[in-house]
Specification:
It contains twelve helices and nine strands. The protein has two domains: 7-131 and 295-317, Rossmann fold (3-Layer(aba) Sandwich); 133-290, Rossmann fold, CATH 3.40.50.1370. It is an alpha/beta fold. It has a five-stranded parallel beta sheet, covered by helices on one side. It has a four-stranded parallel beta sheet with strand order 2-1-3-4. The radius of gyration is 19 Å and the shape is globular. 38% of the residues lie in helices and 14% in strands. The two termini are 22 Å apart. The protein binds N-carbamoyl-L-aspartate.
Length: 318
């Protein structure tokens, strides 16, 4: 796989391949010196046109653990501020000999555009409301490892996963819904009508996704509750009457956390809005794997970097 721009282009077999490779990378990360020479001499550039804490640092850590060189492109100190176009920026950085661009941009589709302007691999680290494939992969890896499963097509069959909140603006919800269902899970979207995509039929038509608007109705019957951030920076209008009311209906508070089944996982991609969608402190919830998701992000991004650069499992265990 030369690029990773969406879950769809990876497909179920591709997801399984990355999950298998992620397990090897997790083993590397448990070593006292968590570093392998797999990508010596290759350069990984993070090209982030939108804010990020965990995704950017996680990719850079992953690249370094594979012994790649890293470059960080910071929009605020670059010639973008002098009016340089995206294409000129990419061609300039590319001319320095780059193996991978890790791209985040507020406009959907930018990673596809960039892959037409460079010979390097392109990994989508979030494009607008559209896709965030490595987040979905690290979430699949987290569910698989926490439940003691073996990566395989259909390995999440029998699991019911609730994705709760601002689905409309969420590239995480789009990528996760595709990835979870590709591995056989059933997804329940829980959101007010104003925070749903204009047309959800491509999801519901497949029969593995249902949409409800009452969190209390489903919370006791699911295996995973995946809380989404309320993405206020992406809203041009008031889509919820007020945050307090939203939180009362769709927030994870102590009462709702108490209704979770034994062994149910609580997930959030971060950053969390405490007191909005996350009312309870995740540390108080036995099934919370929010920090494990962050830890797993490094192994999964190592797997993705290795995969787009044409690596194989044998090379990593050396
Ligand atoms: C997500 C993103 O940027 O899409 N965060 C992340 O990458 N961990 C989710 C969000 O911003 O709500």
């Amino acid at each position: 796989m030369k690029h990773l721009r969406s879950i769809d282009e990876l497909g179920a077999d591709g997801i399984v391949r990355i999950l298998e490779l992620s397990a090897h990378m997790a083993e590397v990360n448990r070593r006292s010196v968590p570093k392998v020479p797999a990508l010596v001499g290759r350069t990984v550039v993070s090209l982030f046109f939108e804010d990020s804490t965990r995704t950017r640092i996680s990719f850079e850590t992953a690249a370094r653990r594979l012994s790649a060189d890293t470059m960080t492109f910071s929009v605020s100190t670059s010639s973008v501020n002098k009016g340089e176009s995206l294409r000129d920026t990419v061609e300039t950085v590319s001319a320095m000999g780059v193996a991978v661009f890790v791209v985040r941009h507020k406009t959907s589709g930018v990673p596809w555009q960039i892959s037409q302007w460079t010979d390097a691999s392109v990994i989508n680290a979030g494009d607008g409301w559209h896709q965030h494939p490595t987040q979905a992969l690290l979430d699949c890896h987290t569910i698989v490892t926490e439940r003691g499963l073996t990566p395989a097509v259909g390995c999440l069959a029998g699991l019911r996963i609730a994705i709760v909140g601002d689905v409309k603006h969420s590239r995480v919800a789009r990528s996760c819904t595709e990835a979870f269902t590709a591995l056989g899970a059933r997804v329940v979207i829980v959101a007010p009508a104003t925070l749903l995509p204009p047309d959800s039929s491509p999801w519901t038509d497949g029969g593995n996704v249902e949409i409800v608007d009452d969190l209390d109705e489903v919370i006791g019957g699911v295996d995973v509750v995946y809380m989404l951030r309320m993405q206020r920076e992406r809203m041009a209008e008031a889509l919820v009457p007020n945050l307090g009311e939203y939180s009362t209906r769709f927030g994870l508070d102590r009462r709702r956390a108490g209704k979770l089944r034994d062994g149910a996982l609580v997930m959030h991609p971060g950053p969390m809005n405490r007191g909005v969608e996350m009312v309870v402190d995740p540390l108080e919830v036995p099934g919370s794997v929010v920090t494990t998701q962050v830890t797993n992000g490094v192994s999964v991004r190592m797997a993705v970097l290795f995969d787009v650069l044409g690596g194989s499992e044998t090379e990593v265990s050396r």
